[in-house]
Design brief:
Blueprint: H1 10-30, E1 36-41, H2 45-60, E2 64-65, E3 74-79, H3 84-95, H4 98-103, E4 108-113, H5 119-128, E5 134-136, H6 144-154, E6 158-160, E7 181-185, E8 187-188, H7 199-203, E9 207-208, H8 211-223, E10 228-232, H9 249-257, E11 264-268, H10 277-285, E12 292-294, H11 302-307, H12 314-327, E13 332-339, H13 346-359, E14 363-368, H14 386-409, E15 415-421, E16 428-432, E17 438-442, E18 451-459, E19 464-468
Parallel strand pairs: 1-2, 1-3, 3-4, 4-5, 5-6, 7-10, 10-11, 12-13, 13-14, 17-19
Antiparallel strand pairs: 8-9, 15-16, 15-18, 16-17, 18-19
Helix pairs in contact: 1-6, 9-10, 10-12, 13-14
Length: 473
């Protein structure tokens, strides 16, 4: 793919803008007041960011948003394909829409995202869920106005799930929650083809946004009040490999850090094979970059890592961790781990447990292996029964709980600068440290969206309790 083909042409975006106007006209003729849309997102922050652009287009076409399918004239599920459990939830929730559709015949049901990019899933929807009106994959978000126009004007079902390397549509309208946290995509796709992972098949090859587009969007976010900005990509460490990009991820991080304003920069996800000393030095030197590194290891066994096609060894991973801790002694490190990969033995699980004890992670995202159709691992022998894997999973989680409890206990008495967020409990607020650990503390709602200094007074395994530090202290 050449550099120019990475980006949707302005003429195509203008064409979609015209369709947006046509949809707006149709909706205005059919509804008294604004039609209502319910949008639900499954999966990662990348999907959340995609949904912001989907909602922006829906808003431009005349929709307002509601909090339940029963209230809606259009229901849209943005789906995730990473694990079987997420897919099962989608099918269950789509099935629950059938009686709503029977009562409200004009209801438009839309399914999109990673799950829909898989041919066998799209075919199942087509055959088994005839009341679904529109299905599209990850490469067609910018075509939503045209697809919705076809559904509304012709009454036809639309399936737009062609596979392609993917492209970038700049300038789409965006509907964000007006909070202090914001997602900022910097790249899309993945080139790694880990043997268990479906992402390269549903998200396409790696492609990076132009630095100037990212920086302009960051400036807009800061101006709108964002104070916690997360740079997103399937592998942010690979940013900048387009021929005309002109900078790598470390340089982009410095450029965002240099923007004026009081805000925190986070990023995810990083791949260990592309994590460099340069990036770790940049994290250490940039005052706005959170001292939190999410670096998925997946396994502590070199044999399993090789079978996973991860392209690094346990020793190389631990070398990065040692260097990062030397540069940032207070660094919070989190990770992903898969338990029960096909062919993994109990002894190899112990290698993973020994690794987590050596690293002393703040927290882990742990999963029992989920078979994904079309991946290399799906055809590997997998002799260990699920019940046994569940026991392994508990053993690993118990080990991590011990580590986390020790870490949070050591935080009692220390003061942390946190971005204040709302809490469901009356009179209680939530703050998140740079290391992504939650602190609950009493306070008034006027602090929400502001930074505050909070002293930790009590620790539990996964959460801290504290009190606001007064300015005179």
């Amino acid at each position: 793919m050449d550099s120019n083909s990475l980006f949707i042409e302005p003429d195509e975006l203008a064409r979609q803008k015209k369709y947006s106007g046509l949809v707006h006209t149709i909706l205005a003729s059919r509804y008294e007041g604004s039609p209502k849309a319910f949008v639900h997102t499954y999966g990662c922050q990348g999907n959340v960011s995609d949904s912001e652009r989907i909602k922006g287009q829906l808003r431009e076409m005349g929709y307002t948003f509601v909090s339940s399918p029963e209230e809606a004239d259009l229901v849209l599920f943005n789906t995730c394909a990473v694990r079987e459990h997420a897919e099962d939830r989608v099918f269950g929730n789509v099935g629950a829409l059938k009686p709503i559709k029977e009562k409200k015949r004009d209801l438009i049901i839309v399914l999109c995202g990673c799950m829909m990019q898989q041919p066998h899933i799209a075919e199942r929807i087509k055959k088994s869920y005839p009341y679904v009106n529109l299905v599209f994959g990850t490469f067609a978000i910018h075509k939503l106005p045209e697809m919705l126009y076809t559904v509304l004007s012709r009454g036809k079902r639309v399936f737009e799930t062609q596979s392609e390397n993917g492209s970038i549509a700049e300038g789409l309208p965006t509907e964000r929650d007006r909070g202090a946290k914001a997602w900022l995509p910097i790249m899309y796709g993945c080139n790694n083809f880990c043997s268990y992972c479906v992402v390269p098949y549903v998200r396409g090859r790696e492609r990076s946004r132009r630095p100037e587009d990212i920086l302009n969007e960051a400036k807009e976010l800061i101006a709108s009040g964002a104070k916690d900005i997360t740079l997103l990509g399937q592998n942010v460490n690979s940013y900048g490999k387009n021929p005309d990009c002109g900078m790598n991820f470390a340089a982009l991080l410095r450029a965002v850090n240099d923007l004026p304003g009081d805000f925190i920069i986070r990023f995810m996800t990083s791949h260990p094979k592309d994590c460099t000393y340069e990036l770790l030095d940049t994290m250490a030197e940039c005052e706005k970059v959170a001292k939190h590194l999410h670096l998925p290891v997946q396994s502590g066994s070199n044999r399993v890592l090789s079978e996973m096609n991860r392209k690094y060894t346990r020793e190389q991973y631990l070398d990065l961790i040692r260097y990062a801790k030397e540069k940032m002694p207070e660094l919070s490190i989190t990770s992903d781990i898969i338990v029960g990969f096909p062919g993994e033995t109990y002894e190899e699980l112990q290698e993973t447990i020994s690794l987590i004890r050596e690293v002393e992670y703040t927290s882990l995202f742990t999963f029992i292996y989920s078979r994904r159709e079309g991946t290399k691992a799906a055809s590997m022998p997998d002799p260990v029964p699920y019940a046994e894997k569940s026991k392994w999973f508990k053993e690993l989680c118990d080990a991590q709980e011990e580590i986390a409890a020790k870490r949070t206990a050591a935080m009692v008495g220390k003061t942390y600068r946190v971005l204040v967020e709302p809490n469901e409990k009356d009179g209680v607020l939530t703050g998140r440290t740079q290391g992504n650990i939650v602190i609950e503390f009493p306070g008034s709602d006027e602090l929400i969206g502001q930074f505050a200094d909070v002293t930790v007074t009590q620790a539990k395994t996964w959460i801290l309790y504290g009190a606001l530090r007064r300015s005179e202290e």
